[in-house]
Amino acid sequence: MAQVNSSNVTNINSSATATLSVGILGFILNSILIWVIATSKKLKDPSYILITNVAIADLLISLYVLSLKIQDAISSQTSHATLNAICKVRFTMLSTCYNSTIFSLTLLSLYRFEIVSIPLRSCSRKINFKYGAIAIGSIWIVSLIIASPIAFIIGYVAYSKICDITQPL
Predict the structure, then answer these.
(1) What is the pLDDT of residue 9?
(2) Residue 46: is its pLDDT beyond 60?
């Protein structure tokens, strides 16, 4: 009979606890940030629209972290095709959220650079909500396009019970 090393079990349990804690904390804090920006009338500047977009992407990443344990729980009762689809969606979503965060922070930096470097022109030219929504929609579309190849190379590997690269690069 094989012996189980108790330090390995303790490491796995503390890793799972840390992962769930980060996921739950990220979900709660990003939800609060989105609520504060959405309900405050003073926070309607384009900077806050972009910060809200980053918070939404982080909220989705928190849901991704929480979904890791759900896949572990259902993997023995679900078909390989379903687990394969879950892997593709999860990793494409994760990459899309990362890209969206990067593009949002880049656009935020450019917006603030313009405010600092050319203050008179940036004060006379206010970006309204419509253009902010178009920019954010464009960010998510470009992020999804960049992340979409992941769906073609990632899949569920049954013998190791993980999502991994299944197609040759």
Answers:
(1) 47
(2) yes
